[in-house]
Design brief:
It is built from four helices and three strands, in the order αβαβααβ. The protein is α/β, with parallel strands linked by helices. Strands 1-2-3 form a three-stranded parallel sheet, with helices on one face.
């Protein structure tokens, strides 16, 4: 996992020395965000998640809810809803992902 005391020390140093204004995470579900918030004492205000025209798992489980489709499985860990409920901004990574093998240009 990670050494939370070391992480908390680094975050504290960065904040106290005005090196950063806010902290964020990448690809974390609600349980991990809560864990990091609790163990460090900092609130993470951004969650960077993969989302593109070819990578829609972030919303697949919502759009396909109550269907027999495999996309209805909770692959996102409810990250989208959790972030909205807790005022955590979303930032897409790989939003311009192009897959030549899938024939998408």
């Amino acid at each position: 996992m990670c050494d939370f005391e070391e992480l908390k020390s680094a975050l504290t140093y960065s904040k106290e020395n005005n090196l950063v204004k806010q902290f964020g995470v990448c690809n974390m579900n609600k349980a991990y965000i809560e864990l990091f918030n609790k163990k460090t004492g900092f609130n993470f205000v951004i969650n960077q998640l993969e989302f593109s025209i070819t990578s829609t798992q972030l919303i697949d489980d919502i759009l396909n809810m109550n269907t027999n489709d495999d996309l209805a499985n909770d692959k996102s860990g409810e990250a989208l809803i959790y972030c909205h409920l807790n005022n955590i901004s979303l930032q897409a990574w790989s939003f311009l992902k192009i897959s030549l093998s899938e024939g998408i240009l």
